[in-house]
Specification:
Strand order of the largest sheet: 14-15-16-13-12-17-18
Pathway: Amino-acid degradation; L-arginine degradation via AST pathway; L-glutamate and succinate from L-arginine: step 4/5
Enzyme class: oxidoreductase
Number of strands: 21
InterPro entries: Ald_DH/histidinol_DH, Ald_DH_C, Ald_DH_CS_CYS, Ald_DH_CS_GLU, Ald_DH_N, Aldehyde_DH_dom, SuccinylGlu_semiald_DH_AstD
EC number: 1.2.1.71
Helix content: 25-40%
Distance between the termini: 75 Å
Strand content: 15-25%
GO molecular function: succinylglutamate-semialdehyde dehydrogenase activity
Bound molecules: 1,4-dihydronicotinamide adenine dinucleotide, ligand LFNQLBSZ
Structural class: alpha/beta
């Protein structure tokens, strides 16, 4: 059922089509083997997908919430049935270890129930009595929306837009990352099997040209994007002058993690590693800057952190002894991390644990820790999307917080501190959409809003709040019969007979 062929690349109006655009393929970054190949969707095929979504919109949006929910539940049940196959495909296409991709599929399954609750709580129907009649709040779907997904969670993150969008009654054209087409194809096959009517969810695969054709098309009523800030900003520019279209951007971060005083240094080291190196540093929430106090306690923490980083197992996604870190998404992404490290060293940083690409044909890199204390004034405010953590030593917490906030991004931030008073000080001063205390800053909950400030997003938080951008409110005052009010406004008379 989940087999792939080159003739089944795009799913438009309930049918699989061969692509008419550029040939592209996805590569297993751990084994350097081709996983999937096909031709991207041409602009004409993108157009067909949008027409199909438009045609399907009326019936889908008028169907009952319960009937839409039933299909979402079928999909969740199919994910459960196919979880091993899907999690193995994610591992193969991204290099992430299978223990981790199993958690990705579990998050996808959990999204169904969470989105149902969010829909009812945030966008349900509310009635309030009025002196004459009642006030009713309802929500309507936007229409045809485009969903763009990133490669790092090729199942979970697009799914986090797709499920709430469908529950709200929108129809969709989905453009996944061109690095993970297999996972997208498998997901869409499961939706079809779940009973989604033709045209409600369409899949167009391809590279930037396909993305541009979709994002710039006048037929979309909205676009839900998870990906890099660079692409998100391009989309934002493209949407300028279209205030009637909804744009939800979930983008990158340059996230700080500050340590003050902690008794259990092993626990602190665990939380640092989980924040910086999980998914080989390829989470938007990953810690990029670690602030540790100057002095002997900080020195000891760093000494132990270095030892622990050197013990992190890096390896194949399917190894019997599972690694903590798999390969990065591509050999190119790995070599970009080596270059980023080189650039920081050239600026005057000191390597404490050197990130190394294990061979130039694969995405394997070892985790790195680099002391950038001497170059904070010239530190580039860039998201280095990989396992390279920058260390900054500080003496004054206000300086540390100021440096932590000295970024155009604002996605996640964390404090490791035993004193509640430290957190009380930190929380109102740090600028981020996710602020954690004594917990890793990765692994955000789908049951909470998920989004950042600055260039991390555009105030359209996802996860629990995705319901908000999937529907617009319609406020009505209603009275069953046209009725004359008891008192007329001054100056009005209806003595007309
Ligand atoms: N805030 C959040 O929720 C999350 C953000 N991210 C961010 O995503 C990035 C990694 O994902 P990537 O796949 O590299 O992102 P990306 O921006 O390269 O690609 C995202 C999607 O946009 C498409 N695309 C790329 N250029 C386009 C263009 N000019 N016009 C239209 N579509 C275009 C891609 O094909 C893909 O489907 C990181 O920056 C990470 O921080 C990742 C996960 C979660
Ligand atoms: O979208 C949700 O349901 C919750 C947010 C989430 O799962 N975040 C993950 C992955 C996102 C990323 O960082 O790429 C996390 O915070 O680890």
């Amino acid at each position: 059922m989940l087999q792939t062929t080159q003739d089944q690349t795009h799913f438009i109006d309930g049918q699989w089509h061969k692509g008419e655009g550029m040939l592209f393929h996805s590569i297993d970054p751990a084994k350097n083997k081709s996983v999937w190949q096909g031709n991207g969707a041409s602009a004409a095929q993108v157009e067909l997908a949008l027409e199909a979504a438009r045609k399907a919109f009326i019936d889908w949006s008028l169907s009952s919430f319960d009937s839409r929910l039933a299909i979402v539940k079928n999909f969740a049940a199919l994910l459960e049935e196919n979880k091993v196959e899907l999690s193995h495909a994610i591992a193969k296409e991204t290099g992430k270890p299978q223990w981790e991709t199993a958690t990705e599929v579990a998050a996808m399954i959990g999204k169904a129930g969470i989105s149902e609750r969010a829909y009812l709580e945030r966008t349900g129907t509310v009635e309030n009595p009025m002196p004459a009649g009642k006030a009713v709040l309802r929500h309507r779907p936007h229409g045809v929306v485009a969903v763009f997904g990133p490669y790092n969670f090729p199942g979970h993150l697009p799914n986090g837009h797709i499920i709430p969008a469908l529950l709200a009654g929108n129809t969709i054209v989905f453009k996944p990352s061109d690095l993970t087409p297999l996972v997208a194809e498998m997901m869409v096959k499961l939706w079809h099997k779940a009973g989604l009517p033709d045209g409600v969810l369409n899949l167009v695969q391809g590279q930037v040209d396909t993305g541009k054709a979709l994002a710039s098309h006048p037929q979309i009523d909205g676009l839900f994007f998870t990906g890099s800030s660079n692409t998100g900003k391009l989309l934002h520019e493209q949407f300028a002058g279209s205030p009637g279209k909804i744009l939800a951007l979930e983008m990158g971060g340059n996230n700080p993690l500050i340590v003050t005083e902690v008794a259990d240094t092993k626990a602190a080291i665990h939380d640092v590693i989980q924040s910086a190196y999980v998914t080989s540093g390829q989470r938007c929430t990953c810690a990029r800057k670690l602030f540790v106090p100057s002095g002997p306690a900080g020195d000891k923490l760093i000494e132990d952190l270095i030892k622990a980083i050197k013990l992190i197992r890096v390896g194949h996604y399917d190894a019997d002894e599972q690694p903590f870190m798999g390969a990065m998404i591509s050999a190119k992404a790995a070599s970009l991390m080596v270059s980023a490290q080189r650039q920081l060293l050239d600026l005057g940083a000191t390597s404490l644990v050197t990130l190394e690409q294990q061979d130039t044909d694969t995405g394997f890199v070892t985790p790195g820790l680099i002391d950038v204390t001497a170059i904070t004034a010239t530190l580039p405010d860039e998201e280095h999307f990989g396992p390279l953590l920058k260390l900054i030593r500080y003496t004054d917490i206000d300086d540390a917080i100021a440096l932590a906030n000295d970024t155009k991004f604002g996605l996640s931030a964390g404090l490791l501190a035993d004193a509640q008073s430290d957190y009380d000080y930190f929380l109102p001063r740090i600028r981020a959409g996710i602020v954690n205390w004594n917990r890793p800053i990765t692994g955000a909950s789908s049951a909470a809003p998920f989004g950042g400030i600055g260039e991390s997003g555009n105030h359209r938080a996802s996860a629990y709040y995705a319901a908000d951008y999937c529907a617009y409110p319609v406020a009505s005052v209603e009275l069953e019969k046209v009725t004359l009010p008891g008192t007329l406004s001054p100056g009005l008379s209806l003595d007309i007979e």
